[in-house]
Write a structure and sequence with these properties.
This protein is mainly α. 74% of the residues lie in helices and 0% in strands. The protein is built from 7 helices and no strands. This is DoxX family protein.
Length: 109
């Protein structure tokens, strides 16, 4: 989470491209907001005192950004096979990541 959150802030252009057009405001704003949210979730999960809330927030964030992953897969449908495979391959991993976050939340004290 921390690595991807930092990537949103350091190199936002690729993330801007997958922000759904239906969202109000600029794609860059959403890219920065999601990057900050990922950093905040990572920090919260790292600290035992806030781990439960951070893990629940992480699960929610992962569910919230799923439409961007779907958009990326759709937009990349005409890309070369390795890129297309990467875009489509990301989709089924969202559920286990959400499950992992919920598991961490359930084990946090």
């Amino acid at each position: 989470m921390a690595g991807m959150g930092a990537a949103h802030l350091i190199a936002p252009k690729p993330f801007d491209a997958i922000v759904p057009e239906r969202l109000p405001g600029s794609a860059r704003t959403w890219t920065y907001l999601s990057g900050v949210a990922e950093l905040a979730c990572a920090a919260a999960v790292a600290l035992p005192r806030t781990r439960r809330a951070g893990a629940l927030a992480t699960a929610g964030l992962m569910a919230a950004v799923f439409p961007a992953n779907v958009k990326m897969a759709y937009d990349w449908r005409d890309k070369p096979l390795p890129l297309r495979a990467a875009a489509y391959g990301r989709l089924p991993f969202q559920a286990p990541l959400i499950g992992w976050a919920l598991y961490v939340a359930s084990k946090a004290r």
